[in-house]
Amino acid sequence: MINNHDSDSIKMRESFIAHYPLFCLLNPNDIHDLALLAKEVSFAAETIIIHEGDLVDAVYLIMSGTAKVTRSITTVGKTEIIPIAHLTKGDAIGLTQTGFFSHSGIRTATVTATSPITALVLALTDFSNFLKSPSVPYPALKNIGEQIQLMHLLKSVHMFQHLPNYKIRQIVNHLTRKSLKSGEYLYKKEEKIDRYYFLLVGKLVVIDDNDQKQIIQKSDFLTQIDEHFKNTDVYAESDCELLMVTHRDIGSLIRDRKTFKKSQAAGFLKKFIGLTRKIWK
Predict the structure, then answer these.
(1) CATH says 157-271 is which class?
(2) Which of 52, 101, 142, 278 has the lowest tally of Cβ within 10 angstroms?
(3) Cβ distance 236 to 202 under 8 Å?
(4) pLDDT tens-digit readout, 72-110
(5) Quick check: pTM over 0.90?
(6) How far is it, in rounded angstroms, from Cα 51 to Cα 75?
């Protein structure tokens, strides 16, 4: 078993990180912090490390061993697996010398170990939170990491679980930002609400017809369609940052998916309120 807290192991991780070209701008303290977040993980030969089409959930630096990279090519009535690269010590999975390998957040190939592999693994959430540090000079990388995190969050919401990952990406592309000052209303009872909201920062208060209050914290997904939020006032208890997307945009993305029949979509919308607390610490 690999001891990820051993001082020699930490120094080895620091060395690998420091020598990977993407991280050349990091100072020694940041390299140390990143090394503490990384985990040394072993994979047996023939293990599939990542699958083409999956959402990016981690990045890898290969410390020892080899792997093959393949991509599926589909023609009429036939799918072929095409080898496209060979990876060895010092190579990365999910990263390039300038950023994330996949800017869309979706794996573009499958990577399979061709010998026993030991790799440094950085979970997406840990890596994205690290990129938010003021001393880390990678704003573009940070933005892509946040978008991929949001894709994971949307994928965990019941009404979106059956959508393919490229549709999840399209929804993320339709999101826009909204800021609220403390005391400012997001909407009031008499207003017609035509969008979903995702709270990134701050705290909202929901007041129903009986003046009962509910607090909505960061990482809560709100929808006016759910019975729970009909005829409510919603205001900011603190300064808030939200992402929003219109019902129309969501509807257009869902309707052209055959697996989403109208009755299914309506059922999801009626029952839907996804409350998650995994992201945006």
Answers:
(1) mainly beta
(2) 278
(3) yes
(4) 998 887 889 999 999 999 999 999 999 999 999 999 999
(5) no
(6) 20
